[in-house]
Structure formats: C-alpha cells, structure tokens
User: Fold this.
Amino acid sequence: MKFYGLNGQQWTNVIAAWSGWLMDGYVTIIYALMAAYYLGSVFFPGNFGGSLLYLVLGLAVGAIARSVGSLVFGNYLGDKVGRRNMLMITVIGFSIFSFLIGLLPPYATAGYFALAALYILLFLVGLFAGAEYGGGTALYAETVPIEKRGPIGAFVQSGFGTGYFIAAGIFGLASLYYSDADFINFAWRIMFFTTIIPGIIALISRLGARETPVFQEMVEKMQVERSPVLKMLKENPLPILFAVFITTGLLYINSATIGFYPFIMGPKINNLSAVSSAKILLLANFVSLIGVWLGGIIANRIPGRRLAMMIFSLVFLIALYPLSVLGIGKDVDTLYFAYGVESFLMAMIFSTLPSYLAERFSKKYRSTSVGFTYNAGAIIGGFAGTFIVLSKSFLGLLNGWFINIAIANVLLIVGLALSAETWSKAKAGARDIIQN
Assistant:
C-alpha cells in the first residue's frame, strides 16, 4: 500500500531523516529560550550586564562545530559506510550531549568554569548535529522518486519547525507551573533533560530505515570514494562556494528571525512574560510549517528549484522592512502578525533547499558536500544574534535588525544567481540527476 506514491520503506527512510530535523529544532529552541530568560542568572554573577551577548554567542559555538561535524562524519561515515549507518551514530551523540547540559554546575558553584563547560557541550552537540543535515538529506533524496523529491524535501525540512513548535509548547506549559525562581534553581535542567526524548524518537525511527538504493549500488559497483572531501573540493570548488553563499544568507536570516525571537521578547529587550513568548512562538512556528509545506508544493510547479528559491527570497526581501517595524513593537497582537508572516515567508525559501542541495552534488560525496555547504553557512549564520546585539548600540534595534537580515537576504540572492539549476519541471522526464 502506498501513500503519496511512496511505499512503507520509503516513508520509514523519510521519517528517519525528518526526525533529525525535529530534534535539531527542539534542542535549538530549548537553548534559545533558556538563554533568553534564565541562563544569565545561572552561568553569570549577579547584575552582570553582558550575559545576553555571551549566551547568544553560544549559538555561534554550536554553528562552528556543525561544519566540523559535517566534514568529519560525512567524510568518514556518511559517504563511506552509508547514510543510515552514520545517522544511527550521530543521533546518539546529539542526544547525550544535549542532555548533559542539564547536569552542569552553576556559576555560584563553579565560577566561569561553568560557562566554559557549557560552551564545550554546545560544541559537542553541534559536532554531532552537523552530520544530520547532509546524512538526512541524502537518505531521503536517494530514496524517493524525483517528481516527489521537492514536496517530500519540504516535509523533511519541516521537522525543524515541528521540533521548535513542540519545544515552545512545552516551555509554555512549564512556565505555567514553575516560577522564574524555580527555573533558575532547577527547572532549566528539566528542559534540557527533555531533549533526550526527540533523540530516542529519532533513534527508534532509524532502526527501521534501510540504506538508500543509490549507496547500495555504489557499494556493489565499488564506487565508494576513498576521500569524499578531497574529491568534493577538487571537482566542485565554485558550486561549493556559491552554495555556501546561499546557506549563509538563509541560515543568517533564520538565526536573526525565528532563532532570535526569544531574545527580542525576553527581559533584556521587550520583557514579555515566558507564557506570552511561548504563545507567540507557537503561532509563528505553526505558520512556518504551513509555509514550508505550501512552499514545497508551489515550488514543484515552478520550472526549477533554484528559480523557486529566488522568487521566495525576493518576496521576503520586499516584505522585510515593514515586518521589522512591527516585529519590535510591544503589542502582542502586532507581534503575532509580524512574526507569523515573517516565519511563513522565510519557511517558503527553506522548502526547496534540501532537494536543491542533494541534486547539486555527486552521490560520491553527497553526504559530505550537502552537510558541509549547509553547516558552513551556519558559521556566520550562527553569529546573527551576536551581530544584532552589537549593532543595537550604534544603529538602534530596528535598523540593526533590519540591516543584518537585509544583507543576508542579498547574499542569498547573489548565491542563487551564481548557482546552476538542478531539476526542472520542463525536464521532468530526463534522467534522475540524483544518480550521478
């Protein structure tokens, strides 16, 4: 029995990939929410004014680690022993190290060693998380037929928003039960302990996954590359560079919007309550899920994946300034609207990214190249919050926020303009390029 043209095993592989995105979104927003509201009191001395900057910097530490992880795990596992096998290993490390953050001592006990330990664990989380995008993208893209790859890729990408949505909901419920003092004393630990749950879900989903037909054929024909990363850099230096432009712009936008919303709403800027923030984030992420799913469907009707991302990026750029103006207001209804529309438009851009990157690079180094280009973009993207906080002092919050996102959007469009198209609806009957 098939659903949307895919059989049970194909859907198992798709869910196995999707679950990694779900965990990534869950872990990312748990850290962002805890950092925005409570970790300043946990990891810094009282009345320390710079805690927000250092906690936002924690996102950049994880982003740097992701590029390292994508190369290490992609090169030595994903493109050598298989996409599914690599993902079985990485999800375990991802889960364990995110869980261990909840065991860290506070500043009152360990001084600045506590902050150093937090950075170390964030780096280790990022190291294992860095392999998820490349491995998961290759797993799903090499499993489903080309005419289904765009919408299915959008579904896989929506795992991040789903994880974000669940985390925001759990945070909102916890905020109804625990006081701010409870969170600072112990409840922040509980939130990090819950990150083991999506890890277990991902691990179980991957037990039933199977290696992709493309990789199995590579093994049978002895086509497995001995050094995927060197082959990647030798054959595709410019496509790699242009793809990094795309991912840097897009991930910077993501970090500066949906990743920065908790800080915008937190006590350092807007001073909204935890419950109010959770409600806004729930709506924004629900709308983003609709955006990524709808984007995948619409993109499949546009003659080209690159063209679809270009159109969605231009629409986002046009709407950016008015949404930025609304997005720093203190009226909750205004924030619902601004963040909802912004999340929807941004999610549409993301909808085509997995299928585009998977089709852009050879099967011999697909896991490595997709993971590297995505996570290399996360290096600068991870500093978005840091740059916004720094620019706030001389540009103001509105101008600093808008200029940061606008520059990233222009870089995204430049990267798309310089890159080549992959699948085109007009050439849907041609040979499936994922086999290359």
Observations:
- Residues 8-435 form a domain with the Growth Hormone; Chain: A; fold (CATH 1.20.1250.20).
- The chain is about 80% helix and 0% strand.
